[in-house]
Specification:
homotrimer; 261 residues; alpha/beta; 2-enoyl-CoA Hydratase, Chain A, domain 1; 6-stranded mixed β-sheet; 10 helices; 50% helix; ClpP/crotonase-like_dom_sf (chains A, B, C); EC 5.3.3.8 (chains A, B, C); delta(3)-delta(2)-enoyl-CoA isomerase activity (chains A, B, C); lipid metabolism (chains A, B, C)
């Protein structure tokens, strides 16, 4: 079991679900987790009684370490394609949700963890300087996809995005707040309660007007991926299959194992 | 008479007009006011001796309460279409003006009041925390048109716009200044004098180069509306004619009357 | 000799070149300098051992005064066209470089000086309030080209760009830092050492991933110029050839000579 959430726990009149990521040790986004996540998300989306989702982690100190590198390493092209399609789907579901999505970032959130945060409507992060958030793809020799770049630009602007993406910067909470990568930083033990109280603020707005407004803002970015989704998959498969990329991912995995060991 | 302004009062060498909105009790943008405003504006625009306009209110505590809701309530489709075309025209005239347009925001400025401010070249607001400014459409169950959203994005960026529009946020002056929704906040009794002195700064720039620069910046946004103006009208008429929208606008009007009563 | 630089001085493992602009008295960007610059730049770009360039001035108090106005004054259309093509080429080379480009802005940097800074990857400015940076074209009655406007918007956002460009604002270092026109301000005697240490940070990132990311960010802006390069030249030639523009540039040159004399 990788996800635990009371579907539409009716917290007062809020009708808000909480998704707690639980894929030890670091909430890696494996193909299995992505698949389960999307199925669960669709259920919530179709449940008219559910108006908001709080996305958080059930594992101390880590929101999500991002994509599971073992899915991108030593597998065949068909596997890479299936995996990338699931990553796209995760983003599409989150970014186009009719529900209010609040990320309660209670730990580090690099790469894919940052992707999930960026695709939410509001980001609250635990204010502990040991935690960082950002898109650090270039550090591993890989490149964020254009639609994730677009999501970052939509959030922190063009220049901060260019700088952060080129250098693969990971920001501690205070810096992340300063550049607008998160909306609020609070002590770790206040993350969940702040998420709930912000959710109640958001839910004072009539759903229909809010959803139309959200769609108006995000549709152009979403359409860019929808109209070249297959090309984006092929681009990923071609890049990740390169010997040089496979070699550096293998070395990175080895480094992670040794550090852990 | 809803507008009072000395056409091109030659204040020193400045040749600046001041438009003082006066449509009691709250400077609602009625069809009549919009029509008069546009006619007066065209006169100024064609008057070569006029280089700048200061846009302000003649009514204490309110810059403009925004669109007159009675124009959107209980009327027929032809009326809604005429009204919306006048709203578009107001924005087009302000946003594409060859004159320097400075908003002297001497009171609250929600929705349509914020629209006029955003379409100016420079915004000075009275620093009184009782006044607020913002696009609060979603609070009423309606949605800002795409060209007003674009104007907001052009001013405060994508993320701040998405957040403010989804939640219908109204900002007190200090917060409005912080996110760039206004350029300057000053004590209420300094609003007009600051507007005049900023105007004299702007008018040190050769008109022709400044106008070409302004057009270069704003033309793409303006063209978006020009090429789908009729569709935007039909979209508004269709939306506002819905039973559910009419019902919530009626309730809002009733609430306003009772509060006033 | 207008440029002095040790080509790929192997500073430790950094393999970084330094270009010191030297065209007394104020590093004007003459056609000759632009031509030499581009040839030198191509050599560096093709030198696989060179990973980064620091761009700075060899002349005290001035980074670059911008385009050489004598190239735009009293010449024929063919000359204006050749000159403008060289200006475009300077921007294209800098903005699309595979190398890390850091501007060490050790003096004032108006107009073309600001262009070179904006086209870099990172900007460090000497923190002396006597120095300013910005695009002050409108002050001279001329207009920044659209691709330079785009570069500014990419750096400081739409609103700050519109405001700065309309008014031809020149910012002292502290203000330039505040709006994001430069990334860092340091005491003048620390500019070069800070540039080197920042370069070493940037060079920790694998080149290939960083270059792909940079291209992803900048290609749309670059493509806009590439697809209408000739039209942009003709637009410049037509504008600069106008009697009114020639007259104001002549007056400005006369003013500069008298001030100098």
């Amino acid at each position: 079991m990788t996800l635990t959430f009371p579907v539409c726990s009716q917290e007062g009149v809020l009708r808000v679900a909480t998704i707690k990521l639980k894929n030890p040790p670091v909430n890696s986004l494996s193909l299995e987790l992505l698949t389960e996540f999307v199925i669960s998300w669709e259920k919530l989306e179709n449940d008219k009684s559910c108006r908001g989702v709080i996305l958080t982690s059930n594992i101390p100190k880590i929101f999500s370490a991002g994509l599971d590198i073992t899915e991108m390493c030593g597998k065949n092209a068909a596997h890479y394609a299936e995996f990338w399609k699931a990553v796209q789907e995760l983003w599409l579901k989150l970014y186009t949700s009719n529900m209010v999505v609040i990320a309660a970032i209670n730990g580090s959130s690099p790469a894919g963890g940052c992707l999930m945060s960026l695709a939410s409507d509001y980001r609250i992060m635990a204010d502990d300087p040991k935690y960082t958030i950002g898109l650090n793809e270039t550090l591993l020799g890989i490149v964020a996809p254009f639609w994730l770049k677009d999501t970052l630009v939509n959030t922190i602007g063009n220049r901060a995005s260019e700088h952060a993406l080129q250098r693969g910067l990971l920001f501690p909470p205070a810096d992340a707040f300063k550049i607008g990568l998160v909306d609020q930083i609070v002590p770790e033990d206040k993350v969940q309660s702040t998420a709930l109280s912000m959710m109640s603020e958001w839910l004072t707005i009539p759903d229909h007007a809010r959803q139309l407004t959200k769609t108006m803002m995000r549709k152009p970015t979403v359409d860019q991926l929808l109209k070249q989704r297959e090309a984006d998959i092929q681009n990923f498969v071609g890049f990740i299959s390169k010997d040089s990329i496979q070699k550096s991912l293998h070395m990175y995995l080895k480094f992670l194992k040794e550090r852990k060991g």
